[in-house]
Structure formats: structure tokens, C-alpha cells
Amino acid sequence: MPDRLPPLTALRAFDAAARHMSFQAAAAELNVTPAALSFQIKSLEEHFGGPLFRRLNRAVELTEAGRALAPGCARGFRELSTAWQTARRISETNTLTVTAGPALTAKWLAPRLYEFARVHPEIDLRFSASLQIVDLENAGVDVAIRFSANVDERYFSIPVRKEWMTPVMTPALAERYTTPESLTDAPLIFDDSLASLQNPPGWPNWFRAMGMDFEPTHGPRFSNADHAIDAAAAGMGIVLGRRAIILQDLLEGRLVAPFKTAVEIDAQFNFACLKGTETRPNVAAFRDWFFSEIEKTAYVSDDFEIIPSSGIRPA
């Protein structure tokens, strides 16, 4: 039995057939004829010195040797694919793929991206608005902006400013509900987008921060933060809004925050990329722009008394 590795095309044919347990399905995946695939596997078995498949009437199954080879072969092709994609991304200095949650993308990133495009016309920016926690090593993504209480040590990560929540409403509703006590009779909107956090913030937290033991339960509930904010901007009611998600609506006057008390959240946004890629020109350019844009509106937090969650007395 030779020690040298067999041809990559033969191993690729074996991997596809082992996954599908069908020469015909494997041939379709690789866009070759079943006869061509069968020839590749036969040549692999000759190279190995024994059968890797048992040919049955209308199916195939792996021999003991085939079962030993299949997992390593599959891992090898996955790692080869990952390495190839990583090398391609590194060489493509004119493209940048960024993922962020739908709410941050709609409410914070999208209104500002024209400025990045103006300053960096050489970078082709591609966005994926998703709540899925992607594996940066395998997902073809350069930068992830994620809201979490934890930091993934595998990545280069920079925390963004602390997030807080405060009631926001239309100017018309602000004229009707002028005190924290008046909110007990107001139409309240619930943003459930942070329900997965260990200590999810909500209306009871804010009312306790104001010295009130009031736990509202009735009102429309939204699983996406941007939908809850849009409902408030349409006049449906009052929502406890997150700083980054309400910022643009506050600056443009669609919403106001009349009560200058905010509750800090036990989580924050993080800018993350693979370690070693933070110095790539396109990643560094986006990072510098991202944090400079955050600093432009940092003054908004100065208007609020921000109470840490640990400082709120329990009900």
C-alpha cells in the first residue's frame, strides 16, 4: 500500500459518495457522470489496495476501511474550503462583508453608511442583517457587530459604549404623559428582543429605578427592537428603547425621551473580527469609521442619569 496520498479528485469523489451513500447523487453534486465518479472511486480503491465501498443491488455501503477514512476526508475538505475562503477574503482588499442585527442595521448603520461610502469609495461593502451568531472562520464574514453579555475569546473584539434604555414616545404623546406616574395609564409597548439575556431589562426595571413598584403586562409585544421603535414612532404607544436603536429617531425628532433617567443593560455591542485581520486596510477603515461615528453622538448620554442594573432595588 503506497504512503503517498491519492489524487485529490479521487478523494473528493469518495467524500461525496460517503456523504450521500449513492454514486448517482454524488455524481450529481460534483457535476460528473456516474461512470466518471465510479472510475474515480475505483482508482482510489486501487491506490488504497482494497475496497472502500460494498456495491449492493441499488445502494452502496462503506467497508470498515471506508468508515475509517470518511470522517477525516470530510474534515479535510471542510478545512480546505475554509482556508481557501479565508485566503480569498484576505486578498480581496476592496470588499468587506459585515454582519449585524436587523435593528442596528436599520436604525443605526443604514442611515450612516452613505458617509462611509463617500470616504471609502474603493471598498465594496456587503451587509448581512441577521441575528444568527456566525462563525467568522467559516461564514465568509469579515466583521461582526453583535450585542451580547459575553465576548468570544477566539476573536479580536472591541467593546462599544454601554447601552441603556429609557422611555421614548412621539412629541404628541409626551404632551399627554408628563410624569413617570402617568405612564402607569399609558399605552406601553414591549420590546422582547433582549429576552434571551440572563437579566433581561424591561419596564419593571425602569419603574423600580424611578422608585415605583409597577410591573405592566398588557400591550403589544415585538421580538425585533426596530419594529417596536417603529410602532412607537407611529404613535402606537411608549416603548423602552435602547440607546443605539432610538438614537436616529431622537436626533430627527420623531421620538422624544422626556424622562432623563435610563437603566444600563448588562450587555453591549462588540466589534469583532478574526485575530490578525484587524490590521487589514478594509477592516481597519471600517473599524475607525464605526467608532468615530459612535463618538459623534456620545454626548446624548450626558443628558441622562444612567442607573446600573445592580443599583436597582428588587421588587
From TrEMBL:
Any GO MF annotation of the entry: DNA-binding transcription factor activity
Domain HTH lysR-type: 6-63
Keywords: DNA-binding, Transcription, Transcription regulation
NCBIfam families noted in UniProt: PRK11139.1
Statement: the UniProt record of this protein carries the keyword Zinc: no
GO terms of biological process kind: DNA-templated transcription
Pfam families the record matches: HTH_1, LysR_substrate
Organism annotation: Roseovarius faecimaris
Protein's UniProt name: Transcriptional regulator GcvA
Recorded name of the encoding gene: gcvA
Coiled coil location: none
Classification lineage: Bacteria, Pseudomonadati, Pseudomonadota, Alphaproteobacteria, Rhodobacterales
Entry similarity comment: Belongs to the LysR transcriptional regulatory family.
